[in-house]
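pinging the channel bc i need a second pair of eyes. not urgent but kinda urgent?? the chain im working w is below, pasted from the shared doc
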Amino acid sequence: MVEVASPWLARALADGSYRHWLALDSSGRIAGGGGVLLCPWPANPKDPCTERAVILNVYTEPEFRKRGIARQIMLTILAWAKQKGLRSVNLHASDEGRYLYERLGFEATNEMRLRFGQL
């Protein structure tokens, strides 16, 4: 995974299509993080934005959980998205994260998925 993901991540960080935030503890250790992938998207009558934002990789290290770190990361990401003029953001919620996202106002949608073969 690292071999495939590293070049993509380097390009996406360089061109600004992926942004990531880290939460650090007082010693500089990473406690958690979260990112946003910006994708070109056609505007439509209800949304003139030509980018779609997908929140990815929200994670808190186990020893830092239940301290509000993921919530603060999400609030930071959402403030950035609003400041950028985006009208919405999407994410896929794990069972563990669903409660936080619902508390922040996220709603389940009608997204569907079709997988091609096995890896």
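so The CA atoms of residues 20 and 35 lie 4 Å apart. and The helical segments are 2-15, 69-83, 98-103. — does that match what u expected or am i reading it wrong
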